[in-house]
Predict the 3D structure of the following.
Amino acid sequence: MPRTRTAISPINDVLAGGALDARKVVRALEQFGEFRGVPAKPKQAASQWIPRSWTTGIYVLDTGDGYAYVGQSTEVHSRINAHRKTWPSLRAVGFLKLRANELDAVERDVARALDASGQPLWNRTLIDVLRVATSLDDCFSRDLHEQWLRDVSWNDWSGHRVADEALRYRYQAAFDAFSETIHARTIECAMGRFVAQTIPAPVRTEATYWSITCANPKKDGVFVRLNVGHQATLDVYPSQREEDRTYCLWIPQVLAEKTLGAQFRDGRGQLGTVRLAEVGKTCRFFYSRLKAAGPDQVGLVVIGDSVFNAILENAEFIREMRRLHLGLMQRGKNLNKRSHCLALADRVLKAEAPNETRVVPTMTVMSISRQPNKPTPQRSEPEKIARSRSSLPARAITEIEQRVRACLPSGIAGLIAAKRLRASIELAERCAAGRWGLSVRDGFLRLNVGMIEVMTVEPEGVRLLVLSPTIPIALRSDPDVGIRESSPDPNRGIYSSVYQSAVIAVPDWHRHFSAIVLEVLSVAHSELIRRAASTRMNPMTRKAHVQAAVDFIETVASHPLDW
């Protein structure tokens, strides 16, 4: 059967009457040369209606739904056939012949010109780096954009991290549960590498433009999620085996085609696969519902730590991911700031930050502040030593640390108790700055807030003050958990100054010690601290406070591997 002659027309004639604004498109494209167009024929392969001479160049598609798609190819016929499986309503093609070495630059300029004209595009990744001033410039100056995009081995680690103790406390329990799993360190290192390579100035942009979430795996199966700008870009799903751990990257389809050589074959379902020569493994793609970085996004499923690390070795992929993240940040601040897990961010940033850069902050609110506008009382030398770690000699600090160790339960229970104590101290500082103290006694540690004791840690277990109505029913029937309430009226409270206060003691050998101390009692204990903060301060709390003990508890809770 003889081949029919292809009708080539000016692109404005081909687009006329379609979903696109032909005049707007032509006006945006006229600066690049003469785009020629042909109408798509629904039941014919691209080779039958696209001229044979159209092989290498830039093409613009009218997908039939009001969106345009910009692409490049050295084999335009096979590429258009692949696009028609994605967009069955494809109705027109505009084409500009170019040399292969010009494709990248012109493709991006064409996409930006169409975007500037107001034409919606499917492939937003080509226009992600905006040329106008945005709020991101305050954190990461425009002068550094090109250097960061060009040199994938460089990043800016300067600046100060966000300090939000309320936010840190909110997700501390979730992080503690995550950190006790066997795969926590591996995931932290993988996420740290990804953040270091693809997030601009990660210290200064933390929380404001990107966040990391430590989720509940029992609820939605996701362990860790990285959010950039208005959307998630990386999910990590847990697995007991390293080779089964799953990473899901959210990337534009054009990025997968360009940097990974992905071949997309069917319409709705599994898009396609790509085999990585570095590790000999296959990754698969699926359609994404996320739209912030463009409606053409796909999910890339990577199974196994070795496969994920192999992808991070691809310099071109990292460069394009940098471009994607930079564009997301320029288009808007992080919508998930309230779910940012600072404790996990500590580990992630520390995993890849240069040695000379200190990005993990110490606890900045752990000392008792003096009351303003009052003369500073003269203290004896023992009181000054108890109040200030900096004035203590190394021998005295070591002695205090030994006493604190002796007060903590042995094994993992001691670590759990230290984490609970640290969280209680942080909340006490927020609620009652200057009216709390941690004392070290023979055989126990005691945290006092206002007039009352709120937590005592002993080698045999932990004693917490909680609100009586919030004690779970299951604990009331547990013979191994000791509960003491005011008798005969529990509402009066063990401490008359705090309504409904009660004491609950959990032995360190209890089979659910971790869950009870860190999770079950966290709400009840935290609310008790808030009520205790309204009471006046016991003078002995200030005198007995030992700041060196607070510092050591922070060290134990932050570095469990050293315990």
In short: Residues 450 and 536 are 5 Å apart (CA to CA). DSSP finds 23 helices and 19 strands in the chain. Residues 412-431 form the longest helix (20 residues).
